[in-house]
Amino acid sequence: MKNLKQLVLPCYKMEVVMNVEAWYFLHGTTNGVCNLTYFLSLLSGMAVTEVSKTKRGLGYVLHPGQVDGSMLSLAKEWNTGRKSVSRLLEDFSQRGLIRVVSNPITTIMDMVCVKSWMMDGRLTENPTYKQTVKAYEGVRIYLFNGQRMETLRKSSARMKKSKDKDTNKDKEKFTQTSQPNKPISEDKKEMTEPECPMETPENLPMANANDKTLRTDNNPPITQNNGTLLDGNAFYK
């Protein structure tokens, strides 16, 4: 299968939601072909209205959001073997891109990653859509009919670079916040602690032999003259 140069959709605009793992898987290769090419092939065959089909004389209905294709027809379209087709469909299913519906006539797949599409100016929600990621998580892309593949690949490269930058910023923030605080030196602690004048050795009181506290040298005792009170007034006689 050759890589597509232009995207052909059954509608004007399509919104696809998937997780990051599925988005990276689509940029891998199978048998030398990008997995995104196989996935876009399924999107191009998706029904946007109810369609009645017949195969080997048996009829079946294809509902909106579904795509049909047997292993033989897909192997012929993708130019690969049936085992490769079966493995690709299983990989798509495990990553929440499609859901295979059992049908005795053909293989029907629900495009559960397609959220909505727009056709004739009308927005239609996909009835087979299954929400696997939250609104602020995963990858959300908008595909337009006739969009060039080079533009789609360039946009995906920008998304990868932006995610790598975000992860690097988160790592830098984590390293900055995880660094322990530097201890304050003992000299700074001693400088910040106020010095109490009552605890200095110069102002310590002295005691005599009878354990009576005496005054310090800085504050000599006040002597009392005969006939005077402590406040300096004379006795009344």
The first-to-last residue Cα distance is 134 Å
Q: What share of residues is helical? A: 25-40%
**Which series of helices and strands comes N to C?**
EHEEHEEEHHEEEEEHHEE
**CATH architecture label of the domain at 13-160:** Orthogonal Bundle
Radius of gyration from CA coordinates: 43 Å
**Can you count the helices?**
6
Q: What sort of overall outline do the alpha carbons produce when their principal axes are compared?
A: globular
Name the CATH class of the domain at 13-160: Mainly Alpha
| Major sheet characteristics | 4 strands, antiparallel
Instruction: Estimate the strand proportion.
Output: 15-25%
The overall average pLDDT, rounded, is: 77
Strand count: 13
Q: Return the structural class.
A: alpha+beta
CATH superfamily of the domain at 13-160: Winged helix-like DNA-binding domain superfamily/Winged helix DNA-binding domain
Give the strand order of the largest sheet, numbering strands 1, 2, ... along the chain: 10-9-1-11
- Runs with pLDDT <50, length 5+? 182-190, 196-201, 211-216
Under CATH, the topology of the domain at 13-160 can be stated as Arc Repressor Mutant, subunit A
Give a written overview of the molecule:
32% of the residues lie in helices and 21% in strands. By secondary structure, the protein is of the alpha+beta class. The chain has a domain at 13-160: Winged helix-like DNA-binding domain superfamily/Winged helix DNA-binding domain (Arc Repressor Mutant, subunit A). It has a four-stranded antiparallel β-sheet with strand order 10-9-1-11. A three-stranded antiparallel β-sheet has the order 6-8-7, with helices on one face. Helix 3 crosses helix 4 (82-94). It is globular and about 65 Å long. The termini are far apart. Residues 182-190, 196-201 and 211-216 have low confidence and may be disordered.
